[in-house]
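Sanity check record (used in CI):
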Amino acid sequence: MTDKLQEILMDLQCELVAERNLVNPDQLTWVQYDILNTLRSGTAKPSLLSQQLGITRTKLSKSLVALREMNYVEQSPNISDRREMDTKLTDNGRQFLASVSKKHTELLARAQQVWNLDEQQHFIESADKLIRLLREERQKNAE
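Expected output for HTH marR-type domain-containing protein:
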């Protein structure tokens, strides 16, 4: 059972990466995509982004430079602490995420074709449990 679970998790990760690559014309890295996805909910400071994503400030800074060069994000000094920068999506960044969202909708339609409602609910609960565990561990390691 353990071997099969590991094999399925690896295969699922590979398939999701392949699906992501179909809508990634600028060849964004995983980190760059994750930054954009995190900024979908609004403006954030780099210190918060590095904590949420579980990456070093140096790695985040390099990724933000590339995203600014692609015109996907913009930064401005934070009003309350001028040493910090507020980072937000540009229109190009939002358009990129919209194209990815369209691909996610297509993936949802395929999942609904192969899973009945009970299977969908079971997947949601199981995946959510694993996602929460992974995020909590990453946040603890970042502290």
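Residues 26-142 form a domain with the Arc Repressor Mutant, subunit A fold (CATH 1.10.10.10). If this sentence no longer matches the regenerated tokens, the check is flagged for review.
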